[in-house]
Amino acid sequence: MTSVGLTPLNDLLGGAYKGESGGLYPGRTNSHPGHSTGLALARAIGPRDVNGTPDAGGKYALVSIGMSNTTMEFSAFKALADREPGRDSHLVIVDGAQGGQTASLWINPSCPCWGVLDSRIQAAGVSASQVAIVWLKEADAGPSSGWPAYAQQLKNEIETMLQMLKQRFPNLRIAYLSSRIYAGYATTALNPEPYAFESAFSVRGVIQDQLSGMAALDVASGRAPWVAWGPYLWADGIRPRSDGLTWACSDLSSSDGTHPSATGQQKVAALLLDFMRTDATAREWFLQ
After folding, report:
1. In sequence order, what E strands does 172-218 have?
2. Mean of pLDDT over the chain
């Protein structure tokens, strides 16, 4: 379908979806209410040695976490970002996302995905103590429980992942979250609409829980990183979002209509790079 008739969350400021108000953040806004906290944490991110001690000659890492779509999109972003002339020279970008590794798998401490992640970080020449930022984009395969049950399930899974990430990476300061791209062209039950659209409410729910003071997501006590939206990627097919974003059929794989094609990967990569350049918190550590 070239459109499913839903309004992107960032454009739904005056409306609602099944009883849920619009906006990327609570209060019908697209601005983070805890922006000052995030900015302070971003400004404190800097190079460390392998043991995590601040070191002007050290490094710090941005790591992706997620499933197949995430690794496809982040790989394209890394290729762009590694050539970005203004990127901080101490920053190391690591694609830790892996095909088939959905949220329900990552929340298992015994998942092989964690070992693969550790190997990729090591291969990039950084340590767990140098991981400072995460881009997390997740979903589950074949959701079927409907609204709002699955959105709540995914929210809980993301919150568990954030706590696990903080335990593994003690100097992790910020986690940027993104929800799914458009899935109206899907030809399988892997993650069709409206689940792709509704995953944005899972992300917003995580942020709401942290803002509401959930102990498990407390930043000050070191239980979780500060959480904010990364780029919001969903648009209603070929119906332009207020900023012009669309998803054409050619942006999705012809095999399943769910994974991004080469053009779709580049579209997300460009959105992610633009976010890193312009977001007030991200540019503090991404740019020199």
Report:
1. 174-178
2. 98
